[in-house]
Amino acid sequence: MKHLNEATIQSFLDGELLADEASERVTKHIALCQLCADALLEAEAGQAEVNFAFAAEASAPVPSQRIWARIENEIDFLGAPDKAKVETKSFWQQWGLFFTASQFAFAGGLAAVVFASFFAIQILRQAQPKPENITAENKLDVSNAGIEEIAMATPTPEIVETGPENLIVSPSRPVKASYQPKKAVKPELRNTEAQNPKSKIENRKSLKVLPEENNYLNSIAQLSKAVEASDEFVMRPSFRVDYERNLAVMDGAISAMQKQVRSNPKDENARRILFASYRNKIELLNTVAEKSQMIASLR
Amino acid sequence: MKKFLTQLSLLLMFGGAADLAAAAQTEKAIETAAKVSVSFCVAAGDVKVRGWERNEVRVWVEGGVADFKVKERDAQNKPVWLFVTNVAAGAKNYDECLRGENIEIELPYTATVGMKSPNSAGGNIIIDSVAKATVSSVDNNIQLRNVTQEMEISSLSGNVSVEDSSGKISIKTFGGDVAAFRLRPNDFSDPLKLGSTSGSIVLKDVTYKNIEAGSTNGELGIYNSLVRGGSYDFNTTNGAVTLQLPSDFPFQIRVTMNAQGNFQNDFPLKFSNTSVPGQARLMTGSNGAGDTSINLTTFNGMLHLKKK
């Protein structure tokens, strides 16, 4: 069995394997391959650590938001004692009043610089010649923003089995050893997402392992290791045949339900069956691991 | 010729010694506290454990040896924790496990039994009339009767039969079947948990309010085993579930199954079906105005709600 490489696992985690076939193949492979399931868990744990480390920073407002928050607070503060008067002033009078407040001088200046930079970039962009071979597929019309944007036409990542430990994406998307930057998604899909911003979030969610699954997957990974190392007496051939057969049935059920849950994470029924299947698998692995432990303890 | 005769005589001598050992019997007894815990492991032989009125533990091994190791005593210096061991065997593996043709242990009714059977001798284990029993076995057939407070059974491929017992019960097997008859809780919250991977599970005349039973490939048969106000959870991956209930038994049911699952129902239930073709389905319904809750879940199996 060829294993998934790091880049593919990261893309899967990031929800970037948007081609149904690619993500489905990865899901199937992970359901069957303990090594890759472990690698997925490890990658998830790493991601969780990074998220946790940057949680404070990520949740804090960015500088411009901070400034605007302060500005709004100050406006409220200034406006509160004589609100009626402020309301009677014209728009430009209010802005004049705003810039007379010394504590806002810096913020106002910064905002002006930001606006100036924005317009300068727009002018420069328009001055640059547009590529002639832009196809209708590649050209995106984000009409509500009023800006034409050229999407990076990234081909659908293909899963190619190349060696014992590599399952790589297509050559047009170079794979780095340890980090795969997030890239633009398929143009057609992106168009859909532009029309329906929620769909992108839904798509990404649907391809990820549900948070509730993590405990089950962790338990299964740990118990599988214990069973793999189990006593040859417990895993004698007659038992192993039965064990593998039942495990295959469970894995088949888990894989099918994972597919349904990934495609619709809100499907409570599929989730219930999936979690019941996880529990059954844990029970099986636990029984075998316990027996192995018992035998080892008595030797 | 001389050499041959020497060899023959040696063979006869050792063979005779082996026969003598096999014919040997060991019987030992020790006075204990009423609530004594007795632990032992068995490497070979059929095992019978039986409760009696005396505050004494007696062990009898046919074709083997046994002795007691007291691990803990109470204030009256009576053993409260006892190991029954094969001290004289000195075997490499399962050093302290009992071996013999037949092994019988008698102990107080209020005793706790802890037993392990770590090899595949395939003998039968019978435990009768004790307070608590914990059994971990590879492929013994296990039969428990009159266990009054608690039992926890775990087996790889042996069958498990439990009768006329009460209290908290947990049974799990990999390939064995589980049969449970006439079980009752001591407390309304006592759970009955049963699990088998490829074996079948049958419950009959059980009066627990809290039952969880699951099988991957085996069948689940639940006959006359639900009580009003209870909460029941049965699930299979590929196996069938047959749930037999009296026609006037009030209940609320929740059936969850994948697209391949099959549901048969003999009751006049009105289901609210949230089925979407090709996807997992949920059906909820009720019979009468009861507060008994039944959850049936299957991936690919058949669920049958049957009238008695």
Compile the SSE list and pairings.
The complex is a heterodimer of chains A (299) and B (308).
Chain A: H1 6-13, H2 20-32, H3 34-53, H4 55-59, H5 63-79, H6 83-88, H7 91-100, H8 105-127, E1 139-142, E2 147-150, E3 160-163, E4 166-168, H9 187-195, H10 197-207, H11 211-228, H12 237-263, H13 268-297
Antiparallel strand pairs in A: 1-2, 3-4
Chain B: H1 2-23, E1 25-31, E2 37-52, E3 56-62, E4 67-73, E5 79-85, E6 98-108, E7 112-117, E8 124-137, E9 141-155, E10 160-166, E11 168-173, E12 178-184, E13 192-196, E14 201-204, E15 210-215, E16 220-223, E17 231-236, E18 241-245, E19 251-257, E20 262-265, E21 272-273, E22 281-287, E23 293-298, E24 302-307
Parallel strand pairs in B: 2-5, 2-6, 2-7, 2-8, 7-8, 8-9, 9-10, 9-11, 10-12, 11-13, 12-14, 13-15, 14-16, 15-17, 16-18, 17-23, 18-24, 19-23, 20-24
Antiparallel strand pairs in B: 1-3, 3-6, 4-5, 19-22, 21-22
Brief sketch in words of this structure:
The complex is a heterodimer of chains A (299) and B (308). With 299 residues, chain A is mainly alpha-helical.
Main β-sheet, spatial strand arrangement of chain A = 1-2
**Form type of chain B:** elongated
For the secondary structure, the number of strands of chain A is 4
Quick check: average pLDDT of chain B? 86
Main sheet of chain B?
24 strands, mixed
The stretches of 5 or more residues of chain B where confidence is low (pLDDT under 50) are 14-22
Greatest interface = A-B, 35 and 40 residues
| Uncertain runs of chain A | 52-67, 77-89, 97-103, 129-195, 199-206
**What's the tally of helices of chain A?**
13
Approximate helicity band of chain A = 55-70%
- Specify the oligomeric state: heterodimer
Q: Tell me roughly what share of residues is in helical segments of chain B.
A: under 10%
Largest sheet report of chain A: 2 strands, antiparallel
Give the N-to-C terminal Cα separation of chain A. Answer: 35 Å
Q: What separation lies between the terminal Cα atoms of chain B?
A: 79 Å
- Which structural category fits the helices and strands of chain A? mainly alpha
* Elements of chain A, N to C (H/E): HHHHHHHHEEEEHHHHH
The helix/strand class of chain B is: mainly beta
